[in-house]
Design goal:
single chain, 3 helices, 8 strands, 21% helix, globular
Length: 169
């Protein structure tokens, strides 16, 4: 498996991958592929943090981190993470998260947030965001709103979360 930064040539394949990956998800709105495109064209986009996992020349997974805020501090938001159904349960998502965290650390980001499975994301170090002083946005389940400190010496943060407007939150 090769994990690398996405390129423009990957966009159509990523769109199809995200649509397919989310087609069987209970909490999907069916527009995740449109969110990827919107975020890619937003001010919150960080090119080095939109990664693909390639297996035998085929893109099997994709992850995107974009900028958000906690209070006045810039943080990352992991969303979405997509793996084609036939490649799920093989560690691809976990590998994408790990590589994304490594790239984010190199870029100096201190925290990453995610709204997702309380069974899945803690395997990559995510904990309930409130434990770090981050306010859970209204309407989001406390156990599904998580964060991770990306730098050992990350300064404490506290406050409300502001997502990129493309999220519609």
């Amino acid at each position: 498996m090769l994990i690398r930064q996405e390129t423009k040539e990957d966009y159509a394949q990523i769109c199809d991958l995200v649509k397919t990956a989310f087609s069987t998800i209970e909490h999907s709105d069916g527009n995740e592929q449109n969110l990827v495109t919107a975020l890619r064209n937003s001010e919150a986009f960080v090119p080095g943090l939109s990664l693909v996992a390639e297996i035998d020349g085929r893109i099997a997974g994709h992850i995107m981190f974009t900028e958000g805020k906690v209070g006045q501090d810039t943080v990352l938001v992991l969303a979405p993470l997509s793996v084609l159904p036939e490649y799920q349960q093989q560690g691809i998502g976990t590998a994408l998260i790990a590589e994304g965290h490594k790239a984010a650390q190199a870029l100096g980001y201190q925290y990453s947030l995610v709204l997702g499975s309380e069974q899945y994301y803690p395997r990559s170090g995510y904990i309930p965001a409130r434990r770090l002083g981050i306010e859970v946005p209204v309407g989001m389940p406390d156990e599904n709103f998580m964060a991770i400190k990306l730098q050992e010496n990350a300064k404490p943060i506290k406050g409300a979360v502001t997502y990129a407007k493309e999220f519609g939150i």
